[in-house]
Amino acid sequence: MFLVLTVISNSHLYKSTVHLLFFQLSVDDAAVHAAVIAINEAVDKQDVEGTFKALQNPNATLKNLKGDNREDYQNVLYAAKQSKEVTTLNKAKREKSTLFAKREEQDVYDTLLTHAEIQGNVTKVNLDAQLNEVNTLLDTQDATKLLAALQSPAIGLKDVQSENAEYYLTTLIQAREVKKENTESPNLEKEDLQAAVNAANILAKEDRDRTKAVGDINTAISEGSPEDLVNLLMRSEATLPEVFPYVADLYQSELRRLKESNGEVRWINQGLAGMSFFREFAEYL
Hints:
GO terms for molecular function: actin filament binding; calmodulin binding; GTPase activator activity. Strands 1-2 form a two-stranded antiparallel ribbon. Strands 3-4 form a two-stranded antiparallel sheet. The protein has helices spanning 29-44, 48-55, 70-94, 115-140, 143-150, 165-182, 190-223, 226-233, 248-262, 275-282, and strands spanning 2-9, 12-19, 267-268, 271-272. The longest helix has 34 residues, at 190-223. The protein is mainly α. α3 packs across α4 (115-140) and α4 (115-140) runs antiparallel to α5 (143-150). It folds into three domains: 29-126, no CATH class; 131-205, no CATH class; 206-282, no CATH class.
């Protein structure tokens, strides 16, 4: 990186370039190693608070620690460590040698959880806790709290949009009902949530597009030409039944009459009010 100093003196322009050297200090591997060992020792003692304090050590460089999950961290890490120790001992037996037969063959992480393993288990605990919260919130039908849970980094869902909160609630409730009918566990997993979010986003966009299309149609009924109205009726966003351009004048006159009577032409039963009449009439022309 360079810092350029500009100095003006005696009508002459001088440029002096000062080189600034930045040193990026690497993480102290020894400190990380010590912090990881301390975590393993706390896990062995099955001391929830001690384990959480060790996890919070800045030298451990662990991410997304949540106090509410401290007991689960202890339980999951203890189980993972026990499993690793059993696996290592079984491997040693198969090889007909002891793990520490030779000093040069010793590896402390044969029985201790590594930094990556600790972080992986922390992340898994956070995900499971957040999934439980989402499934619980579906019972309360609180769209605002559900949205916040879906937006949590612990789940890592993509394309969660605040304006679609009600759609997420409805779609997820339906997804859980379907899963309940087909599996023993009705609880939704991350993949289920992402699929529901994607489906809800599509549905929300279709509804908004249709609402705008109906609004444009209402404007054209009053202010546009018959041709303008037919073009709007035929737009895919309106999702209307077949439209017959050769009766454009009829569309405008009849829809204008309906609008004057009702205040606006509304979306009813998969079509605009009165559209079924036009279809039947046009088929006889």
